[in-house]
Amino acid sequence: MAEETQARSSAPAEGQAPSGPGGGPRGPRGAGGPGGRGKFFRRKKVCKFCTEKIDAIPYRDVRLLQQFVAERGKIVPRRLTGVCTTHQRRLTRAIKQARNIALLPFATRH
Ligand SMILES: [Zn+2]
């Protein structure tokens, strides 16, 4: 016979807003984003020879070639240097030529 329907809903106490006084999780910053440019420019490497409009790669230019040769005399793959396919090919030839006239070392074998 108990007819007490006491809906004990957990009503929020008076005055307390559900979000609280702290504000949302988003702070005021974040407008600029994390993009700090200037240090890393990894994307969009442009072929050095294309930019400088070097058509034929001078095989005598050791300093130039050495930039594309690893320490052991290995030719650096073009995905690391950013050289385009055409110039990479010419570069390879130039390096080989330079090796033949002993301007560059051959790849040292282990
Ligand atoms: Zn190129």
Any overview of this molecule?
The structure is a single chain. The mean pLDDT is 77. The protein has four helices and no strands. The chain is mainly α. It is 26% helix and 0% strand. The N and C termini lie far apart (96 Å). The chain has helices spanning 48-51, 62-66, 78-81, 85-100.
How would you classify the helix and strand content by structural class?
mainly alpha
Helix content: 25-40%
User: What would the average pLDDT be, to the nearest integer?
Assistant: 77
Name the poorly predicted regions. Answer: none
Strand content: under 5%
The span between the termini is: 96 Å
Bound molecules: zinc ion
How many helical stretches?
Answer: 4
Over the alpha carbons, how many angstroms does the gyration radius reach? Answer: 33 Å
Write the element-wise H/E pattern from the N-terminal end onward: HHHH
Key traits:
110 residues; mainly alpha; 4 helices; 26% helix; binds zinc ion
Q: What are the SSEs and their pairings?
A:
Blueprint: H1 48-51, H2 62-66, H3 78-81, H4 85-100
This protein binds zinc ion.
Question: How would you concisely characterize the structure shown here?
Answer:
The chain has 110 residues and is mostly helical. It has four helices and no strands.
